[in-house]
Amino acid sequence: MPKTDFNDNWLFEGRDQVRLPHNAVELPFSYFDEKVYQRTFTYEKTFDADPGWAGREVSLHFDGAMANAQVSLNGALLTRHKDGYTPFDARLTGLVKTRGNVVKVVIDGSENPEIPPFGGAIDYLTYAGIYREVWIKTAPALSLGLTKIETPDVLAARKTVTIATTLSNPQNLALSGSFRATLRDADGQEIASATAAVTGPSLTLTLTNLPNIILWDTTTPALYTLDLTLDTPQGTDTTTTRFGFRSVAFTTQGFALNGKPLKLRGLNRHQSFPYAGYALGRAAQERDAEILKHELRVNMVRTSHYPQSTHFLNRCDELGLLVFEEFPGWQHIGGATWKQEAVENVRRMVRRDWNHPSIFIWGVRINESQDDHAFYTQTNAAAHALDTTRPTGGVRYITDSELLEDVYTMNDFILGNEEQGGNRPRTPLRPQQEVTGLTHSVPYMITEYGGHMFPTKSYDQEQRQAEHVLRHLEVMNAMYGDPQIAGCVGWCAFDYNTHKDFGSGDRICHHGVMDMFREPKFAAYAYASQSDPSDGVVLKPVTFWARGERNIGGVLPLIILTNCDEVELRYGTHKPKRVKPDRDRFPHLPYAPVIVDRRHFTDNELGLWGMSWEHGEVAGLIKGKPVATARFAADPVATTLQLAPDAAVLGRHEALRVIVRALDQVGNKLPFYFDPVAIKVEGAGHLIGPSLLPLRAGSTGFWVQAQTIGSIKVTVSSDRLGEQTLQLQAE
Ligand code: GAL
Questions:
Q1: Given this model, what pLDDT does residue 602 score?
Q2: 123 alpha carbon – ligand 1 mean position (Å)
């Protein structure tokens, strides 16, 4: 079914010509009034009919609009869609004039309590706008509707694919014709095909006995495509759907992918960005998946707390990053209509996303809500009726909660809250049965920890950041050490803007292991260092290397996050010391950190206040050979302004992130450097957000948005560190 871009030339609020995705109100970085977007906004677009539409079904497809969208054409209401996170269509067939049609979309950012997740407080922002793309879809009167592809029994030597498609037949025509499915590998080579006659509104086909299929997993995310062709007297319709062969299973002994046990190590992701809110397109969405996979090196992500961009999910499919997807909600359960809409949201989410191999569990409980037997019986049934291949989870923080899902998914915030556990000693995670209140064990996963229990800013004191690191490590260690826990998902990947009721008063929850620009805090390396060195050596000493930053002074105990076998620490003219990972303290982590303390250096050697402070060097060794080095200057001086763009080329209309860092003479970021930089963007793109930015913890970031094809010049200047330029190409 062909779809064309319908994102250009929308008139916003009768005033501005804008392109979608669009954010109705651009918020500052912090300390704003979030009520400014909590009202209605209008988008209008004038268009002529395309001669090619004659005799065909024509509809507008919205990938997502926040919220309560009402779509009308030439003054007549076409459709309404309450939910802000799922797609919807507006049928135009028979209503389009040859010239001068006006489509009008009114959206409402007011947090209408009739619509999930609204009605209570929520710890994130739901930025108003048509913040995802809009398309024109055309098709013959009889066309291919939703397609579901399943791969039963993937562990058999020869594989099977089942295909179920519904016909779209809005004109209620008599059904006839034929239907063909062609399976192709990633290179487009045909593997198998089959044909069937159209006999009813549902079409099914099975391809069997498929040889040499590669399973999709986290290291080899093999993808296949299925081309469908429908031939009827009304014409030919085709679709292409990507999928993977894989199986997922939760038992009381954890999680298995394709029958092999896999410990899940993940982080939660909100889909928001500074200034742009939800409204960044494909490149930025994909980039987040790449950051999670390659920089944070997790093997799963939870789309807290709503269905996220399909661009993000597509990239997760390509990268082999498992996804826990959940329907919209946060703690609050509304009345009967609200619940009905929530159940419908489960169905919309499952139908939109059931072909993504990356998605391995559906979250069907309003995040952290109270028990509600009837409601959650319905949400579970809705997911199971549509998809028998994936388990459900229900994220709660209450104990003894009724288990209606396949997996007990728990936000365990006990670490740092020992009083709640009856003044027990420091505890990373509670025992499963204490949480569930059940006498038997059940499939179990930890879906949040950290977060508000220990908010940590990238410019916080080193000691606090070291504690932040330890807490993430301790929970992971406990998870790895308990075969009954399938995995743990930390709160959270990236800092995010939020309502006044949460966060640090600045409208930011500083809960990320990265800041809002996706610059790592030290805790990011707690995750990255758990990956195999063949994915990249990690060596991150948790220090700014200063004599007087910590209380009392010195840098001990010094945590070194690494996947090396051993490190060698050199300090001034002292004899180098080799230290191994602390397996006593972290016996279960794949890669325990090295912890250098007074067992290795005396105060005289490394810590004493009043003595001269010296340069330091940490080398990481694997099998006795140095593979990485971290150097520290005892006398850091602001030396270099570094620009790090995510790429040199921007896709059409895409936004590209550029990170700016102030570095010292050995290339380390200056953690307490706050001088401003001025940003200028010239040529085929524009800057998103303000043009004067303070560095925070030695860095900042911005996104450049491509407007047309051509070159873009970015100039970043600082009074102290001079000017740097970048040449980017918008294609
Ligand atoms: C949880 C909640 C998250 C976030 C987090 C902060 O209770 O599910 O959305 O608010 O706390 O730590």
A1: 75
A2: 7
Structure tokens given for 103: 């489509």
Establish whether 368 is a catalytic residue: yes
Res 381 pLDDT > 80: yes
- Tens of pLDDT, residues 303-344: 999 999 999 999 999 999 999 999 999 999 999 999 999 999
pLDDT, averaged across the chain: 96
Catalytic annotation present for 448: yes
Average pLDDT of the segment spanning 239-266: 98
Per-residue b or e along 244-278, where b marks 16 or more CB atoms closer than 10 Å to that residue's CB: bbbbbbbeeebbebeeeebbbbbbbbbbbbbbbbb
User: How does pLDDT run across 401-436, given as a tens digit for each residue?
Assistant: 999 999 999 999 999 887 776 778 899 999 999 999
- How many A from CA of 537 to the centre of ligand 1? 32
Residue for token digits 């994909």? 286
Q: Is 84 in the pocket of ligand 1 (CB under 6 A)?
A: no
Task: Tell the residue nearest (CA) to atom 10 of ligand 1.
Answer: 123
Entry pTM: 0.98
**What's the rounded Cα separation, in Å, for the pair 169 and 325?**
30
Q: Which of 326, 368, 453 best tests ligand 1's pocket when mutated (most atoms within 8 Å of CB)?
A: 368
Count CA within 13 A, CB hemisphere, residue 625: 3
**Residues 6+ positions from 142 with CB-CB distance below 8 Å:** 167, 168, 169, 173, 175, 177, 230, 232, 234, 235, 237
Between the CA of 88 and the centroid of ligand 1 the distance, in Å, is: 29
